[in-house]
Sequence to fold (141 residues):
Amino acid sequence: RKQKCIAMFRAAHRAALVVRRSWKPPAARAFSTTPEDVICSRVSAVLASITEGNWEAYTDVVAADATCIEPETSGQIVQGLEFHKHYFDLEDTKDLSKTTTLCDVRIRMLGENAAIAVYNRVQQAGAAPTAVSQETRVFEK
Fold:
């Protein structure tokens, strides 16, 4: 399942590059047959929207009342999308060539209506050093 998720992200990323504004999450693709596959495609959709700086796609797949604790929040819990919008609006990151690779992907279903996905995200951007972050995302229907 790990390899399938990585391949799905790469396919979603290529689609985002080709048709950036009209791109939609790959949830209904034929290979998404299990709940874990659907969650994996959702992770791919979120990360592709971030990589491409596509705010419209990001708001399609992330709840308006989402909460986060990130390095940029200095340990504070931030609720809502306004915090994230700031980073999408930064002009100096729009044209930067970016590659994201997912490693060690684990998905656990929490009943029929929720799941948790954990993974290592390896990010390459231009000549900047490669960055690795450990991420956890919770999904709810």
Observations:
- Residues 21 and 37 are 24 Å apart (CA to CA).
- DSSP finds four helices and five strands in the chain.
- Residues 1-30 have pLDDT under 50 and may be disordered.
- Residues 35-52 form the longest helix (18 residues).
